[in-house]
Amino acid sequence: MSEVPKRCDVLIAGSGPGGSMAATFLRQKGYDVVLMERRRHPRPNVGESLIPHFWTYTDAAGVTDRLVAERFIAKAGAFADWEGERRHMAFRNYGFSRPALHVERDVFDHILFNHAVGNGAQAFEDCTVQDVEPGETVVTRYVHAEAGAGTIASRFMIDATGQQALLGRHLDVRQADDDFRFVAIWGYFEGSSYMAADGTMQPPENARTIAPTTFVTGLPYSGAGWCWHIQLRESTSVGLIVPTERIRQARSQPGGLEAFFLQQCAELPQLSILLQRARFIPGSLNVINNYSYTSARMTAPGCFMIGDASGFIDPIFSIGVTLAMYGAFTAAWAIDRSLRNAERAESSRAIFEQQIQTRMAVSRALCRPAFRAPAYTEGRLKAAMRLYSTAEHGLIRDVTGLSGRSINFERMSDPAAA
Ligand SMILES: Cc1cc2nc3c(=O)[nH]c(=O)nc-3n(C[C@H](O)[C@H](O)[C@H](O)COP(=O)(O)OP(=O)(O)OC[C@H]3O[C@@H](n4cnc5c(N)ncnc54)[C@H](O)[C@@H]3O)c2cc1C
To answer: Which SUPFAM superfamilies does the record match to this protein (predicted)?
Structure first.
């Protein structure tokens, strides 16, 4: 193992899509980057359905060819069985020439991490960042499994620690989102059928020839719970988004969460048909509590929070990974601009903050189901919606409509543009 340096230009904590992509973008600009990851790749991660927007960032990072070579499952769009109505959409109808993907996140994240290392980032796995002192020189304390505790000084620091939200907690700016109080429970099946974009049910062996959709369905009890079905190469990821109060009862029932999960899978009408011949993979159940939060601030002197470290609302639109990549791109831009001209450091930080806060606010507004009104009509969000193209407006309208969430899209968008 090489020694952890004492200084660098940019220290990045966390190597999910946000951290690894930020490391690559900054290396492309010639900066000295240290990337610290508390686990070892490949490691599991949630978030396997990707929208086609993410290619913009992988193109910029130069990692698209490597991802294409992996031959992840191309997904056609989404299929919803929601409150008795069945609706579907295909990305190609909105001008996308490249597919959306269903990815095994251990493999996907590992590719992005290796690409950052290949571009010259100094990466340290089994290395946990413990705390950060923002300032003109940022001081970061870490513990490395072999080297032990140490500190590293950097001109800039990026917090890409995901749901750990290291800096947000440290600065006490992370705010739980009371409107989205859910627990996610997900597990993996072998041999599941899937829904194609034309509304037909297909056996798993057809996934290479007839592209699957991400299938979503609402849970029958109130509270906007829902379920996903994501066809992967060797297995199928099935997840439940369950209101927190409902999960308390589930934990105390015989068999605990796993029994609850399997019972729900068997009771949801269309899902149970897809899973008719499938086998649950024992031990594959995972849980994340209270994953919805925002941050009152997403920067501090010398520091930027990106991806889930800056906030996360709800996985319904599969935009988490794309937002993490956007945060990586924007933070790298802001750091580069600041290092080229120190007088621009404050304005760069402000632009980053405004960009990420606005995207988060738009995403939060679009995630709100109709019954969660009052809804957003704020001018800032209306202005942000005007930046989307007509095709993108059509896509947002239709995708939010699949799960009964288009109320804020209608309020925020200018009918003429939409
Ligand atoms: C239930 C659920 C379903 C989701 N489904 C989707 C989906 O279908 N599509 C989608 O695009 N998004 C989805 N998301 C969101 C997606 O998972 C995240 O937005 C995305 O992974 C964020 O990337 P990131 O790089 O910010 O963080 P992460 O991918 O979480 O990576 C953070 C990294 O930081 C490391 N780390 C943490 N703390 C430290 C520390 N102190 N020191 C060093 N390293 C540390 C972690 O080990 C990890 O490797 C979902 C989220 C949830 C909760």
So the answer is: FAD/NAD(P)-binding domain
Is the separation of the CB atoms in 210 and 99 below 8 Å?
A: no
Q: Are 340 and 71 in contact (CB under 8 A)?
A: no
Burial class (CB in 10 A: 0-12, 13-18, 19+), 344: middle
Cα gap 105→49, rounded to integer Å: 9
- Ligand 1 pocket, residue 324 CB under 6 Å: yes
Q: Rounded to the nearest whole angstrom, what is the distance from the C-alpha of residue 416 to the centroid of ligand 1? A: 37
Bridge partners for 151 per DSSP: 141
Which among 20, 45, 140 is the best mutation to test ligand 1's pocket, defined by most ligand atoms within 8 Å of the CB? Answer: 45
Nearest-CA residue for atom 18 of ligand 1: 320
> Whats the size of the chain, residue-wise?
418
pLDDT digits (tens, 9 = 90+) for 266-294: 999 999 999 999 999 999 999 999 899 99
CB 167 within 8 A of CB 159: yes
Which pair of tokens denotes residue 342? 């120190």
Kindly list the structural domains of the chain, giving each domain's residue range(s) and its CATH number in brackets, ordered by start.
7-48+104-177+293-362 (3.50.50.60), 182-289 (3.30.9.100), 381-412 (no CATH)
Q: Is the CB of 168 under 6 A from ligand 1?
A: no
β-pairing verdict for 293-295 and 174-176: antiparallel
**Using alpha carbons only, how large is the chain's radius of gyration in Å?**
21
| d(C-alpha 278, C-alpha 187), whole Å | 12
**Contacts (Cβ under 8 Å, ≥6 apart) of 322:** 50, 51, 53, 54, 57
19 Cα nearest atom in ligand 1: 25
**Closest ligand 1 atom to 321 CA:** 11
Q: Cα of 14 to ligand 1 centre, how many Å?
A: 9
The C-alpha atoms of residue 270 and residue 258 are separated, in whole angstroms, by 20
Report pLDDT digits (tens) over 331-370.
999 999 999 999 999 999 999 999 999 999 999 888 887 6
